[in-house]
């Protein structure tokens, strides 16, 4: 069970891959930092927090 909207949260911060056997996306350190910032910014909207 997860809070309502968590699927949308992960769609907004994650990458869509071709399938379960697809290789993970490769991101630069700058891209990773930007994604973390964006995830933290959106977290309260989806009643999530980073510990």
In short:
This protein is an all-alpha fold. The protein has helices at residues 6-13, 29-42. It has two helices and no strands.
The helix count comes to 2
In sequence order, what are the helices and strands, one letter per element? HH
Head-to-tail CA distance between termini: 19 Å
Shape estimate: flat
Q: How would you classify the quaternary structure? A: single chain
Low-confidence region ranges: none
**Major sheet: size, sense and barrel closure?**
none
Number of strands: 0
- β-strand percent reads under 5%
Cα-atom Rg, whole angstroms?
Answer: 12 Å
SS-derived structural category: mainly alpha
* Helical residue percent band: 40-55%
User: Averaging pLDDT over every residue, what do you get?
Assistant: 89
Describe the 3D structure.
- This protein is mainly alpha-helical and about 50 residues long.
- The protein contains 2 helices and no strands.
- The longest helix is centred in the C-terminal third of the chain and has 14 residues, at about 30-40.
- The two termini are about 20 Å apart.
Helix and strand topology:
Elements: H1 6-13, H2 29-42
Q: Could you name the key traits of this structure?
A:
43% helix, 51 residues, mainly alpha
